[in-house]
Design goal:
Layout (H helix, E strand, L loop, with lengths): L1 H69 E16 L4 E18 L4 E10 L10 E12 L4 E9 L21 H5 L6 E12 L2 E8 L26 E8 L5 E10 L13 E13 L2 E13 L1 H6 L3 E12 L4 E11 L10 E13 L2 E12 L3 E11 L1
Antiparallel strand pairs: 1-2, 1-16, 2-3, 3-4, 4-5, 5-6, 6-7, 7-8, 8-9, 9-10, 10-11, 11-12, 12-13, 13-14, 14-15, 15-16
Length: 390
C-alpha cells in the first residue's frame, strides 16, 4: 500500500508540476498575443490615418485639376508682308505688319454656364500717333438652358457670314481676309446685347440677337459705322436672325437678316436712315475639295444715302480650294463688291486672289498669294504671311 501511495503521490506531483509549466507557457502566450493585438491595432490606426491623407491629397489634386480645366487660355496671331503696286496712283505698298495678336480667356463655372473673352492688339502697338489699337473683341456669359436652348449676354461677334465668327489664320486661305466680308458685312464685327441659339433639330439651328447697332456719319460707310462697344450710341438697337443648316456631311448653308431703324442713331444734321442687311453663304467639302460662296447686301432707306449712291451696298465671292494632304492646299478666290454706289459701274471693285497654304502643324500655317484688283481700282502684287492658333 505504501508503495502505491507513494507512486500515486509522485504522479500527482508530476501532473501538478506540468500544469504549472503549462500555465506559465499559457500566460506567456497570452502576453505575446496581447502584444501582437496591440501592434495590429496600432497598424490599423496608422493605416486609417494614411488613407485619410491619401483621400485629402486626392481631393486637393481633383480640385486643382478641375480648376485647371475650368479656366482656359488660348489665342492666335498673324504676321503679314504686303507687296502691292497701285497702278492708278503709281505707288507701291511694301510693308511688314504684325496685323493681329489675340489672347482668349475662358472659364467654365459649371457644365452649363461659362465665360469667354478675346483681347486683341492690332498692328503691334497702340497709343497716340500709333498705327494700332487694343480691342476687347469678345466678353460674354453663355448658359445652356437645356440641350436645345443656349443663351449669351455681353459683347460677342455677330452671327453673319463665314469668317466673322471663325477667323483664326489656319482656318482660311489667303493672307488677308476677303474684301467682301471686310467691306460689306463688315468683319470683324461685334456688338453688345443678348442672343439665343436654338438647336431645332440635328443639323438645324436658329440664332436671334438684340444688340447695339451701327452709328454711321454722313458718308454712310458701313465699316466706319462699327462702334466696337466703346460708349456706343444706343438710340436704335439692331435685330439679327440667322438660320444654319449642317445636316448633310460636308455641307453648310446659312442666311442672316438684320434690321436697324436708324443707322445714324439720331446724329444731328443727318437724315434718319433705316437699314436692312441680307447675307447668305454656302460651304461644301468633299474629300480634299472645298468650295465657298457668299453674297451680302445692305439696303439703306434714306435720301442722303441715295444721293451718295450708298443706299445699296453689295458684294459676293466664290472660292474653290483643294487640300492635297495635311500640309498643302491651294485656292483661288474671285471677289466683287460695291460699297460706294450700287448702280454705278465705276465704283465696282473686282479682286482675284490665287495662292497656297502650308500647314507646318494643324495650328501653324504659312501663306502666299497673288492679288489682282480691277474695276474702280487697279493694283496687283503678292502677299506673304504666317499665322497660328492655340
Amino acid at each position: 500500500m505504501m508503495k502505491k501511495t507513494l507512486i500515486a503521490a509522485a504522479i500527482v506531483s508530476l501532473f501538478a508540476s506540468q500544469g504549472a509549466v503549462a500555465s506559465e507557457e499559457t500566460q506567456e502566450l497570452r502576453k505575446v498575443i496581447e502584444q501582437q493585438q496591440k501592434v495590429l491595432k496600432d497598424l490599423e490606426k496608422r493605416l486609417e490615418e494614411t488613407e485619410k491623407r491619401v483621400e485629402q491629397t486626392a481631393d486637393v489634386v481633383e480640385e486643382s485639376s478641375s480648376a485647371k480645366s475650368a479656366t482656359t487660355i488660348g489665342g492666335y496671331g498673324e504676321l503679314h508682308y504686303n507687296n502691292i503696286t497701285d497702278n492708278k496712283k503709281g505707288t507701291d505698298k511694301k510693308e511688314f505688319d504684325f496685323h493681329r495678336f489675340v489672347l482668349f480667356f475662358g472659364h467654365e463655372f459649371t457644365e452649363n454656364t461659362r465665360f469667354f473673352s478675346e483681347l486683341e492688339v492690332e498692328h503691334s502697338i497702340s497709343g497716340d500717333g500709333q498705327n494700332g489699337e487694343v480691342e476687347l473683341e469678345q466678353a460674354y456669359i453663355e448658359h445652356d438652358f437645356n440641350q436645345m436652348l443656349t443663351g449669351k449676354a455681353g459683347l460677342f461677334l455677330m452671327p453673319v457670314g463665314i469668317i466673322n465668327e471663325t477667323h483664326e489664320p489656319p482656318a482660311f486661305y489667303g493672307v488677308e481676309r476677303n474684301p467682301v466680308e471686310k467691306n460689306i458685312l463688315p468683319a470683324t464685327w461685334w456688338e453688345a446685347g443678348a442672343a439665343l441659339n436654338v438647336k431645332a433639330a440635328p443639323g438645324l439651328a436658329f440664332d436671334g440677337a438684340i444688340t447695339s447697332g451701327l452709328y454711321v456719319d454722313e458718308s454712310y460707310s458701313i465699316r466706319g459705322g462699327r462702334q466696337k462697344v466703346s460708349k456706343a450710341k444706343a438710340e436704335d438697337l439692331a435685330y439679327t436672325a440667322r438660320v444654319k443648316y449642317t445636316a448633310v456631311p460636308g455641307l453648310e448653308l446659312a442666311a442672316t437678316a438684320q434690321y436697324q431703324s436708324d443707322l445714324t442713331q439720331g446724329r444731328e444734321g443727318v437724315d434718319t436712315a433705316s437699314a436692312t442687311l441680307l447675307t447668305a453663304h454656302a460651304i461644301y467639302t468633299i474629300e480634299g475639295f472645298t468650295v465657298k460662296a457668299l453674297y451680302a447686301q445692305w439696303d439703306i432707306d434714306g435720301q442722303e444715302a441715295k444721293a451718295l449712291g450708298r443706299d445699296e451696298q453689295t458684294g459676293w465671292y466664290i472660292e474653290p480650294s483643294y487640300r492635297f494632304n495635311e500640309s498643302f492646299g491651294v485656292f483661288a478666290r474671285y471677289n466683287e463688291y460695291d460699297n460706294n454706289a450700287g448702280n454705278n459701274a465705276d465704283t465696282n471693285v473686282e479682286q482675284t486672289n490665287v495662292g497656297i497654304n502650308y500647314w507646318l502643324h494643324e495650328n501653324v500655317v504659312f501663306k502666299a498669294d497673288y492679288e489682282k484688283v480691277g474695276g474702280a481700282k487697279d493694283s496687283d502684287g503678292f502677299n506673304l504671311g504666317v499665322g497660328y492658333q492655340f
